[in-house]
Amino acid sequence: QLQQSGPGVVRPSQTLSLTCAISGDSVSNNEVAWNWIRQSPSRGLEWLGRTYYRSSWTTDYAVSVKTRITIYPDTSKNQFALHLNFVTPEDTAVYYCVREEVTKRFDYWGQGTLVTVSS
Amino acid sequence: DIQLTQSPSTLSASVGDRVTITCRASQSVSSWLAWYQQKPGKAPKLLIYKASSLETGVPSRFSGSGSGTEFTLTISSLQPDDFATYYCQQYGDYTTFGQGTKLEIK
Fold first, then answer.
1. Which chain A residues are Cβ-neighbours of B45 within 8 angstroms?
2. Cβ–Cβ of B97/A111 closer than 8 Å?
3. Cβ neighbours of A46 in B, within 8 Å
4. I need a labelling partner for B8 at 20 to 30 A (CA). Which of A7, A32, A36, A51 fits?
5. Whole-angstrom Cα distance, residue A52 to residue B93?
6. What is the pLDDT of residues B44-76, one digit of tens each?
7. Per-residue pLDDT tens for A65-114?
């Protein structure tokens, strides 16, 4: 199960920060990856990036947000986080954390967090 | 990025109908394609992965086929619970999603 937390409103030019707490699995599981995906009426479902552990930690980011995004694991809390810098109203969306298992099934999704970028 | 185009964008059908949704990729994704169902206010739910494999717990009236650049999702006999929006997803090259097909009651 994935439980998301974070603010629902972020000011323009500030940083959007969300966390995804994992239960029933481990963020260090070397057969899964942990993704962030967002959904908006204008952009549809958009993959933002992922982090995963094999023999070391790896992150991959979408080109569209690569200069503004950080995804990182917190092994002490068994969770992973999303930071998106310098947000604009175009970053307004429902954000989901998603588990991707070894056969590339995106099988578990968080409940979604609506983040509105507004002053 | 690999682009996915779904058709139709909207589909009107009745309970008991057989319906098919198509997803076309801008380049080959082999069989790395999944289908999701989404209802308002909920996260997408995985139905089909690897083009034709049925996710555990998903009714057998759902089926997927295709490879390369053309894929289909078929619902053999629509049930009231099936009216929702459906998305295809490729994961041959990172991941992208189609724009969605809204399945409405006729």
1. 109
2. no
3. 97
4. A36
5. 17
6. 999 999 999 999 999 999 999 999 999 999 999
7. 999 999 999 999 999 999 999 999 999 999 999 999 988 889 999 999 99
